[in-house]
Design a protein that fits this description.
The chain has 150 residues and is mainly α. 51% of the residues lie in helices and 0% in strands. The longest helix is centred in the N-terminal third of the chain and has 47 residues. The chain is rod-shaped. It starts with 5 loop residues before the first helix and ends in a 59-residue tail after the last helix.
């Protein structure tokens, strides 16, 4: 990093011994160690903050991508890709009158229940008897598991 050779370190140690003196040299080395330790802690914290900012930036980018994916309308994209002019969807568009060009369907007439008929009274002295009642039975429709429920 600094490209300091052993010979240069020895020269610095000899100058420090002469200038500081042998008595105060251990205290100076201890103080130098504290400063180096503090510098490393600050550098580590700085690196951690830089890494956190990079992660947050990546998370913001991922969050934006997720929002784009969430807001994407796949149905609209498919329609635009397959049928940009809307010709196919118009062909399958069924209004109240049916498909374009198809004959109008006549509505089926609803079934009307026959009124109860009373038998004509006989000319004899017998009691009049009511006419038989015709009942229509409704059969319940049981859905099959493969039928689609709409």
């Amino acid at each position: 990093m600094f490209d300091i050779a052993w010979s240069e370190l020895m020269l610095i140690a000899v100058v420090a011994l002469v200038v500081i003196g042998p008595k105060d040299l251990p205290k100076a080395i201890y103080a130098l160690g504290k400063w180096v330790r503090k510098a490393r802690v600050v550098a580590r914290e700085f690196q951690t903050h830089i890494d956190d900012m990079m992660r947050e930036t990546e998370l913001d980018e991922l969050r934006k991508e997720a929002l784009k994916t969430r807001d994407m309308n796949i149905k609209k994209m498919m329609e635009d890709t397959i049928d940009p002019q809307g010709e196919v969807s118009k062909a399958f568009d069924v209004g109240l009158t049916g498909h374009v060009g198809s004959p109008a369907e006549s509505e089926p007439e609803p079934a009307v229940a026959a009124p109860l008929a009373v038998a004509a009274s006989p000319t004899t002295d017998e009691q009049p008897q009511p006419a038989p009642v015709v009942a229509t039975a409704t059969v319940p429709v049981i859905p099959h598991p493969t039928d689609k429920q709409a």
